[in-house]
Amino acid sequence: QMQLAESGGGLVQAGGSLRLSCAASGRTIREYTMGWFRQIPGKERESVAAIGWTGRATDYSDSVKGRFTISRDNTKNTADLQMNSLKPEDTAVYYCAAMGSGGRWDYWGQGTQVTVSS
Asked: Which of helix, strand or coil describes residue 70?
């Protein structure tokens, strides 16, 4: 089993930055694709960014492309999301997840709240 714990959320003004961190325990993330998702109450969870095993392959939703950067450190067992130029519409609970070789997001964190004020 893998446990994921997000940190770094908070309240920030529009145009500001936050860095979210996801710390994994129980298993190494080395063979997992890592992803960040977000969810607004009453809406479906949406994918924000993902990064492959080696860190070379990344993918972003159109809404965050050019503003957010996902990274990982397999030696520290962490995956981070740097969020710049934040907008009020980025307000959501952000979740970290890990995808194994089966192609499913097997493990999820509890989430961290990000609130962007206008």
From this structure: strand
